[in-house]
Amino acid sequence: MNEYHAGRLHGIWALTKRELKKWLKEPIILFMAIIQPVLWMGLLGKAMNLNEMFSSSNLGNINVPNITLPGSALIPASSGIVTISGSALSSLFQNVFGNLGPSVMQNIFGVTDYFSYMAIGMISFIVMFTTMFSGMSIVWDRRLGFLNKVLSTPVSRGAIIFSKVLNAALRAMFQATIILILAVIFGLQVSSTFNVLNIFGIYAAVFLLCVGLSSVFLALALRSTKQETQMAIVNLINLPLMFASNTFYPISMMPWWIKSIAQVNPVSYLTDAVRQLTVLPLDASALMLDFTYLSIFAAVVSFIGIALSWRYLTK
Amino acid sequence: MSENVIETEGLTKVFNKHLKAVDHVNFSVKQGEIFGFLGPNGAGKTTTINMLITILKPTEGKASVLGFDVAKQNVAVRNVIGVVPQEYTADEDLTGLENVLLCSDLYGIPRSVAKERAADLLKLVELTDFKDKRVETYSGGMRRRLELACGLINRPKVLFLDEPTLGLDVQTRTATWNYIRKLKKEYGMTLFMTTHYLEEADALCDRVAIIDHGKIIVVGTPEELKHSLGGDIITLNIKENSDVSDLIRSVEHVKDVKNEDGSYRIKAEYGEVTAPFIIEVLRRKGYTVTKLMLTEPTLNEVYLEYTGRSMRDTEESAEAFRAQRLTMRRARGG
């Protein structure tokens, strides 16, 4: 007879430890999880060189013809006909665009280089994919009978779900760290307001979205016994979740119907929070809004998730 | 507390509002016995076990384990039972020892105690040499033994075994039976098991309940069940030509005698005891027995008698099920 008492935290930690052990034993899984956002960073962040597109160097080959104007068009007006040489104009345009380009980037993205903008988006990317797999893993646990075995032990039902959430959060936080380090190596430029303590802010934001999203995916996975179904569902959700957000492009430039999705999409709030903490000059009120939204999302969704899991796990 | 370890009363489980998997089942399991649920796939064995181990809620009726109600006091039940599920539930990526320690964590057993118990249990199931190897390298028999070790980590009073030898080869199956007997002897616990192998029920169980379509058809010891068919068949021949039917009929426990051209077909209870008496009676009257054959009814005949179907018909689908599961496991590994 078991004379010991299985505490709530004890159970959560035991189950989380199991998943972390599995994860650490297969470095290939970590590698595969990291390689995809790194490829995105390289191929999209570096190759799609938006700041270069807006820079003056692209104007070098433009041959501006001489322009002839009536003197009255000038300020102050002069008499007769005035001719401005093309070479003078083209150096003038270069000058104007040279200044205009970065400020257009600055206005649209908030930073002057696209790479810094999208590299932060990859943190959201990693959160989405890690939480998606936490949903998959409960389908596996069910299929292999592990779930039933755990259900026959005194461990709390909530602990089973929460250990999955916690595991996803810990993984995502670790992977986000690697992504950030790689991004800095590839040339991420942090803003002047960045300080080391901001990293804890990043972790907090990542944790909140992980709790929220893995609750969604777990709730979706609870009734499904086939991994194919689950795979189809998460793929269906992940694409719009990623592109209808500020992960790659700013929301302000989107048509109204994507904008309305992006504005309620929690991924946008994580991305913005991390950008505020790294590449953007910190806007405290915007950051507050991000954290409030993420906290409410995490609280509401995990409450629903745990309520549902309670129902489905006690058949 | 009554001496019955498990008691059920009208236990019923209905899935999707119309599928009656278990239909008003009543039985009780006594302290210290091995109680077997025998029936084909889909008879309701696993559903019954799942209700007893509190992972399914009964739709109707009651069940208690060691006096705890499975629906209302489920945490108390979970603490006193051990479960060896039908599937291999051990985590393939972890080692044997890590798996046992994971189970101990789920019961809240402190690490120092858990380590000691894990070492003892792994020794009991003869996995000490493999404890640091990943479970994916284990054979079917080893995995089954590991499941046993996991199921025993909380020193359960009652152990539930769901198809403990499903898919194992004959030798491994016999070895697993020996472990189960050893457990019963060493820990004095009560075992509740399901099986669709007749030999298994016959070899292991003190009492057997035959279940079909969610209903218990008959309960008794394997011997009782076999005798309930009216006994064994003794076939004998004598050297002499005279009819000795009446003489044989006078022997105790003999129920029926038929003379088929000098070969006597005798239906008798306790055939192995009755046969020597018959020979003795015949010899005293001067007859010489030239040939004797004793056929004992097996549980298969019992099953046939009560359900009208042969148990063997259902075994093929179990193999198919197992093959499917293996494929899935490979898919996961690849």
Structure description:
The complex is a heterodimer of chains A (about 325) and B (about 325). With about 325 residues, chain A is mainly α. Chain A folds into two domains: about 10-50 and about 110-315, no CATH class; about 55-105, no CATH class. Chain A contains twelve helices and two strands; from the N terminus they run H-H-H-E-E-H-H-H-H-H-H-H-H-H. Chain A has helices at about 10-25, 25-45, 50-55, 85-110, 115-145, 145-150, 155-185, 200-220, 225-245, 255-265, 265-275, 285-315, and strands spanning about 65-70, 80-85. Chain A has a two-stranded antiparallel sheet with strand order 1-2. In chain A, helix 11 (about 265-275) crosses helix 12 (about 285-315). Chain B is of the alpha/beta class. Chain B folds into two domains: about 5-225, P-loop containing nucleotide triphosphate hydrolases (Rossmann fold), CATH 3.40.50.300; about 230-295, Alpha-Beta Plaits (2-Layer Sandwich). Helix content of chain B is about 40%, strand content about 25%. Chain B is built from twelve helices and 14 strands. Chain B has helices spanning about 45-50, 75-80, 95-105, 110-125, 140-150, 170-185, 200-205, 220-225, 245-250, 270-285, 300-305, 315-334, and strands spanning about 5-15, 20-30, 35-40, 60-65, 70, 80-85, 160, 190-195, 205-210, 215-220, 230-240, 255-260, 265-270, 290-295. In chain B, the strands form three sheets. A six-stranded mixed beta sheet of chain B has the order 6-7-8-3-9-10, with helices on both faces. A four-stranded antiparallel beta sheet of chain B has the order 2-1-4-5, with helices on one face. In chain B, a hairpin with a 2-residue loop joins strand 4 (about 60-65) and strand 5. The model of chain B has no long low-confidence stretch (mean pLDDT about 85). The interface of A and B includes residues 21, 22, 25 and 314 of A.
Concise description?
The complex is a heterodimer of chains A (about 325) and B (about 325). Chain A is an all-alpha fold and about 325 residues long.
